[in-house]
Write a structure and sequence with these properties.
Strand content: 15-25%
CATH superfamily of the largest domain: NAD(P)-binding Rossmann-like Domain
CATH topology of the largest domain: Rossmann fold
Order of helices and strands: EHEHEHEHEHEHEHEEEEHE
Strand order of the largest sheet: 3-2-1-4-5-6-12
Number of domains: 2
CATH class of the largest domain: Alpha Beta
Largest sheet: 7 strands, parallel
Number of strands: 12
Shape: elongated
Length: 264
Amino acid sequence: MIKVGVIGALGKMGREVVKAVLNAQDMELVCAVDIMGKSQDIGNVVLGNPCSICVENDIETAITEKKPDVVIDFTQPQGIFEHVCLYMKNKVKSVIGTTGLNQENIEELRKLSCENNTACLIAPNFSTGAVLLMMFAKQAAKYFNNAEIIELHHNQKKDAPSGTAIKTAQLMAEVNPDFTLSNCPEKELITGARGANADGNVHIHSVRMPGYIASQEVIFGSNGQILKLAHHTMDRSCYMAGVLLAVRYVFDNNDFIYGLDNIM
């Protein structure tokens, strides 16, 4: 039985994670942490049935006292680096769904994971469909010299571009270094009109709008043809298969992984 702690348990994603862990036959929820709602029974909150796990406010106290094998973190970008360092310090394996880590952060965490022999899996997206889109985009990138990404999220998402879009551009750039070949010289009349310029000169356009959960479209073009790859999230439950896959992986391994595509 895998003992699991959920950090950010009262957030929209956190509630889905708690529900998935409680329903998983090979997992046991041992702690739930959130800055809000201390002492609430998390089972009552997410399922309407008590589970005898009360929400706590302090991460370090929770993991040192309840000793989870794996923690799942869906919190806020501004604190996630410190959270993962704390997990490493306490040799607690982690699955990280919070975005906002830059490449320098990721490389430092990779080093800490190796030094502490403690697994950490960070994924910009846990939807198997979205991960497949990234893998398909990398394959298509071999055959197109022009591509752009449009990502659309709800208007409460703080970071832009999304981690999924950044990871997608990185994968595409691994097989093609420049996706602006044959473009004419450009002049932005309004700064940012052409979006962010990511790896491989892939332009990423971020939309924030109520009504969306998460969507991404990768557009490839060449003379006489357009290829569009798209993924749309309709419900946050679509992420749970990937989250549970990640938990099972880190429980059995001690390495550092960035991207769910590496274990699919």
